[in-house]
Each structure stands twice: as structure tokens, then as C-alpha cells.
Amino acid sequence: MNQSTQDLFEQALDRREVKGRSLYVDAWHRLRRNKAALTGMALLLIIVLLVIIGPMLNPWDHEIPDWDHYSTPPSLDTGHLMGTDALGRDLFERVMVGGRVSLLVGLIATLVSLLIGVTYGAVAGYLGGRIDNIMMRAVDAIYALPFMFFVILLMVVFGRNIFLIFVAIGAVNWLDMARIVRGQTLSLKNKDFIEAARASGASERSIVLRHIIPNLLGVVVVYVSLTIPQVILVESFLSFLGLGVQEPLTSWGALVNEGAQELETAPWSLLFPALFLAITLFAFNFIGDGLRDALDPRDR
Amino acid sequence: MVSSLLKIDDLRVHFEIKTGARWFKPETEIVRAVDGISFSLKAAETLGIVGESGCGKSTLARAILGLVRPTGGRIVWMGESLHDLTEDQMRGKRKELQMIFQDPLGSLDPRMTVGQIVGEPLKNFFPSMSRLQIRERVAGMLKMVGLLPEQINRYPHEFSGGQCQRIGIARALIVNPRLVVCDEPVSALDVSIQAQIINLLKDLQKKLRLSLIFIAHDLSVVRHVSDRVLIMYLGKIMELADRDTIYHHPRHPYTRALIQSVPIPDPEAERLRTRTTLGGELPSPANPPSGCVFRTRCPHAIDACAKQVPALEAVSNEDEENSGRHQVACIRQQELNN
């Protein structure tokens, strides 16, 4: 075989390292060098653990008031680490329980929008032409619906229900995901390797599953990490307006709402939920930014 | 005469392009990327296809593999017309017809390892093969194209351009195809690597008795690999002949201009020769000139060229053995060459 000695030399050197580094492994190594993203991940981990374990260690219940302490500031003596609210309920317990709800809403609504959005966008982008046109005009039409109007309508028809919040937020958020995924698919499907896959006998289905979707993953991961905080914020907004989670259950948004009303008498009841909400949002955004840089180092 | 492996008869691939963005009555234009191409190819033969960028070479390649649907004409593969096949049947035929792409890195999925890339055709065509069998075949194939089997778990971005093209070749050959269409396989590579890849292709062709359709815009590369050469211009055949005939006795004015544009690696000779350079640009295939498509840039064009589409005709005045093998599409070829 005709081969230059240099080529052989290069290959001989490579002989030791058998395992290749995938683009994801590369990205992980870059992400690990990103301080902000690492801090974000650490903070998020702490918050998630706290939210899961905290209520188990805390003696107070989020529904039952402590009849002796109404609106008390944080103190170790009373055992209320973050004080109590106007009804005498332990704020630490409520912030933790509210955190569970907020994070869960963020996660589930994002998953819903991920599933619908990726499939819808990939199909529209890959098939293209008239089908793509019809599918994307439908997205535009749904986009035109005012979100708040849509939520209020749902609440009126089906009654207040936490499950409805998941549905409502997910049903709106997949639109963005579908648009992003479609755009990405359009640029992917003209790549040579898709043509090559077709030439090597791949069916349309396996092209979408084996080639298009894995190559979309980078963009999708970034978008997901930025959608979760957005969804948490939307839920907070809904709860703030009184459309979200109902008493005695709570969420960070609902807690901020309550706290804002007692700002003058009990500032701690605004401070703590707001702090947790803000830290979580920051953490997610830092992770998202870090992921974007790590997955596509050229695109800065 | 030996029966041909591939026979292409008056192949046309036209694309409709929307020009006016009107809502209800979109204005369309027809781009004639491939417009009436006919040729045949024998087993173990190499046909070089040469032409400028945008003359329809790549579209012709993709049409042969059924990656674009021809608008008209017939492609007959081992006596079977590919035009009548369904998408599924066509997929099965690609076991025998494979392709090597122009962009070495771009034609490899960045998220897959070399093993997965080269093994993909096996997975698609032989679903019953076990993972271990596929791995063994892939390792053997990698060795054959001059890569190390140890590199099977590497990703494409870890390879150089020449190595990527070797991976592309391995992927094309792993299903034992009869014909490989090479769409400018070396134009993205360094000259030294080009030689390696071309020699590799020639070696493999001899070993596996492959037929090759070798598309390029570099005449010296084509000369090195081809048995016959087809000159294309704006979707049509200008000249088709054996390699030596094309290079030593070109008859079409376009072929002559192309051959004269090849630099001679001897400054003395380079200075002495006279050359006719072509002026102007390649006309748009959406709006080709009437009559002979080359007439707008041809130094010998006369009024008759605009009126009559020249047919591809065999050159008669050569020795008996080669008669019919040299075809030219030019109405003035007799007077210009005598």
C-alpha cells in the first residue's frame, strides 16, 4: 500500500491510545474548566439535596402552624431556622416544599416541551416542503394565542389543579423548542453525511433516529438548561397572580407573593424564598451558558 | 461486445426552482442540471467525468445512485431499469452501487465512531449479522484501506483529511459493491495525499474488480485513473472517448481548451506553447443558450451553432478498432479537425 513513512509513524504513535474521545467527552472536559458552570452545578446539587432531604430532618410541618410563634424572625432558639410566616408556619419547611414543587414544574414542563418539540421540529425540518410549511404555520398560530389568556381559560374550564400548570406551560414552551430543532434539522439534512447514510442504505426513520437526533442533542441540551429556569419563573409568575399552586401547598413563586405582602412586618418571609429562587435561576443559566460554550467552542 | 454493467440512456435531471415569491402563483424556473446524458460502463472499467463546477457532474452521480429522481431517461443496471424501482427496492440496490463523497470530514457523522460509520452499511444491508461479525469485517476493511484496526473506536474529528477519505472509501467498499461513484474524492486534499488516495483506489479496484465512475475537475488526476473520459458542459456531453484519444486527439473545442489549460511542469515548454483561453462565464443551466450550449464561449462558433443542437456522433475517420468509441457533439468537428 502506498503510504508515506510519516503517516505510518503517526499511526504507530497512536497505537497505544485505542479509545477515542467523543465530542461529548471533549465537551465535558471543556465544561469542567468553566468556573461559573461548575459553581452553578454545585449550587444546584446542594439545593436539590436540601429540597429532598431538608423536610425529612426538619421537625415542623408545612401545613400545621406553630401556635406559639406567629411571624417570628429566624432564630435557633425557637427552632425556626428561617422564622415563621403570619400564620405561624415554619418558613424553612415551606421553602423546601415549595422548592420541590418549583423544581418539579420546571423539570416536567421542560420534559413535555422537549418530547413534543424535538419530534415535531425534527419531523417538520426533515420532511420539509409543504408538510413543513403547514406544521410551522400551526406553530405560528398557537404562538399568537396570549399565554395568560390561555392559562386563565384552562383554569376556568378545568378548575385549579397543579397538573394543569404542567400542561399549560409545557404546551406553550414546546413551540420554541420545535422552531429551534426545525432550524437545526434543516441545516443538518443538507450535510454530506446524511446523503452518505442514505447511500449506505439507511431508511428515512433510521436517518432521523441515528443521525439527525444525536446531532441535535447539543443544541437541545443547551436549550433545556435555559428552559427550566424560564419555566420556574413562569410558574412563580402564575402563583404570584394567584393562578398557580394552591394553599396549603406552595411554591417559590407563591412564597415570594406572600412574603411581598408582609415585607414591612416580616422581611425574612420574602428574603428566603426569593434567595432560593434567584440562586436556582442563576445556577441554571450559568450551566446553560457553560454547556453552550463547551459543546460548540467555535461559536462564541 | 461485452455486455455493459451500467447503461445510461438520455438521462435528464431537472430541478424546479421558485423565483417569484408570489403566494398563489409562484413563478418557477427549470434548472437543467443533467440534460440528456447517455453512456455505458463495463465491469472493472473506469470512466472519468470532467467538467467545470456547476456543469451537473455531482447531480449525475447522485442520480445514478437514486439519491435524486431523474426527470427523464433510463438508468439500466445489470439489465434492470432502476427507474421503475420503489424507494425500498432502490435501497437494496445500493448494496451494489456505492459512493465516495467530496468532503472527507463532512461525509462522516461527527457523533459516530469509525467502527459505527464503516459498519453502518453492513447493519443496513445485512441485519442478521452479529455485532462481532460486523466488527471483524470493519477491522479487516480498515486494514485494507491503510488504517489501523486499533483506530476503530476513534471519532472522525481525530483524523486528518486523507485518513477521513480512507474511512469514506472503507464505508463504500465494505458491502462489496460492483460500482463505486467517486464524486471528486480528492479535490479537498493536499496534492501529496491526493496521490496516496488515488493509488489506493486503483489498487483496490484491481483487487476487487470494481467499476469506477471518477468525477473530477482536475484533468491530470482523471488521466491517471480513467480508461475512458467523458467531458461535460452545462448538463450535456461534449466529448466521450478513450483516455489517450481525449488527451492526444481532442476534437471538441471545449475539450481542447480544457487540455490546453493544464499546466506543463516544464517552464520552457510552458512558455513556448500557444493556448486559447476561454472567455466569459458558465451560462446559467436555468437559461441555457439555444443550439449548442457551448457556443457562447466557443472560439469557432458560427450562426448555425445557435440554431441546431449538435448530436453526439461517433467520429468515423479513425482506425477500425476504435470506431464508435470516440463521440463528439459539435456540428463543425469535421471541418475543424481536417
Task: Kindly describe this structure.
The complex is a heterodimer of chains A (300) and B (338). In chain A, α4 (91-127) packs antiparallel against α5. In chain A, 73% of the residues lie in helices and 0% in strands. Chain A is flat, with a radius of gyration of 25 Å. Chain A has helices spanning 5-14, 23-32, 35-57, 91-127, 129-144, 147-158, 162-189, 192-199, 204-240, 252-261, 268-295. Chain A has 300 residues and is mostly helical. The longest helix of chain A has 37 residues, at 91-127. By secondary structure, chain B is α/β, with parallel strands linked by helices. Chain B has a single domain, classed as P-loop containing nucleotide triphosphate hydrolases (Rossmann fold, 3-Layer(aba) Sandwich), CATH 3.40.50.300. Chain B has helices spanning 57-64, 87-93, 114-125, 131-144, 161-173, 191-208, 219-225, 243-248, 253-261, 267-272, 303-307, 333-337; strands at residues 6-20, 27-41, 46-50, 72-77, 80-81, 97-100, 179-183, 211-216, 228-233, 236-242, 313-314, 327-328. Chain B has an 8-stranded mixed β-sheet with strand order 6-7-8-3-9-10-12-11, sandwiched between helices. Chain B has a 4-stranded antiparallel β-sheet with strand order 2-1-4-5. Chain B is globular and about 65 Å long. The model of chain B has no long low-confidence stretch (mean pLDDT 85). At the A-B interface, α1, α8 and α9 of A face α3, α5 and α6 of B.
